[in-house]
Predict the structure.
Amino acid sequence: MNRFDPPGALVVLFLALAAPSLVCAQTLPPHQQLARDIYQELVEINTVTATGDTARAAEAMAARLMAAGFSGRDVQVFTPAPRKGNLVARLRGNGSRKPMLLLAHLDVVEAKTEDWSVDPFKLLEKDGYFYGRGSLDDKFMAAVFVANLIRYKQEGYKPDRDIIVVLEADEEILDVNAVGMQWLLKNHRDLIDAEFALNEGGSVGLQNGKPLRNGIQTSEKVPVNYRLEVRNAGGHSSVPARDNAIYRLAEGLVRLGKFDFPMKLNETTRAWLERASKLEEAQVSADMRSVASARPDPAAVARLSAKPVYNAQLRTTCVATMLEGGHAANALPQVARATVNCRVLPGEPVDEVQKTLVGVLADDQISVTSTWVHVSSAPSPLNPEIMDAIEKLSSEFWTGIPVIPTMSSGATDGSFLRNAGIPTYGHSGLASDIDDNRLHGRDERVLVKSFFDGQEYLYRLVKTLSAGRQ
């Protein structure tokens, strides 16, 4: 035998060069690889609300579940409109308790390729992150719920309640066309009826890489849009009149900009103030505790209200977001309009907000018309079973951080479920940097470690809350 055999040497060299990639491909255990594969498949299906295809995504997830052994009775896809798909899947338990529902939405906001540094519709793993539109909102939860349901099935897990996974359409536009959650509630309430639901809305906050808090969203503000309008006769700009539509509207908006709605706390916001105060610097912490108390210090209320993030938790807010007026550079304006977006506290009557706006604008020539109102819902109660399970599991994953109930200043389809008698809790177990929020933004991304930690956290949380046995 020759001391140097070229073909053998080439084989050895190839294996040596290939070894790192082979090792990399084998580093993920099967349940994590499955979740990653599903995640990639979902991100790479364009599901932009206006132009994408959530029906295709729902069918792809149904195929995954059917291949894993779920029956057609327990995996159903509904398409109320072209390209609009909703998936309902069920892992059957022994029926001793009412089902739990795991909710995620398939649609995403628009992402323009020219605005991103990467292709938004390709899952890219780079520098410890997964990049892609929907990677954070909300295809992490959709992928993990499907992967975990398959994992339970493979393990022969027998819960004491059915576990229902719902992947819905059109959440990003709050189901204004009633083809998502509203359609399911109206047409297939029996398939999604549950004791409670887990949804997006609460996450683990990181700062400088360290976990600070674990949020559970139990309440949402109600978005409402108003059109403000002033009309008059107009005329030639060379002969200006004092009664100017733009001036009138502007003066009313200045009054609105100086106005604060009264402070009102609910169970969620009071608990948030008390628990989150432990994470703040001394003055802010003291102010939060005072505001949460039975007799808040007016100075503390004023200082906290001066901070937009805190102010949004304390009261209804209304802010001018769009402005238009006039029709020619040399003509007096015949009309001036503004859009005011309000975020109304749960339980506060929307018609009272409109009356307040009229009073604050203080000009009967400024008409106020409601143009869109999302559904209002009462906060979900701080269920002891759910809170205890989250507290215990959170302490195992992120030692020492508080679990903090939150009220979202935005909105989700959880409001529809709450109004249908299904308490809904926004809670993902996904850790992200509180100072780098790319939700709906450019180069949306998720930490790779957070993805797999969140997967395992939700896997164990759902098991805890379904109390099943192998």
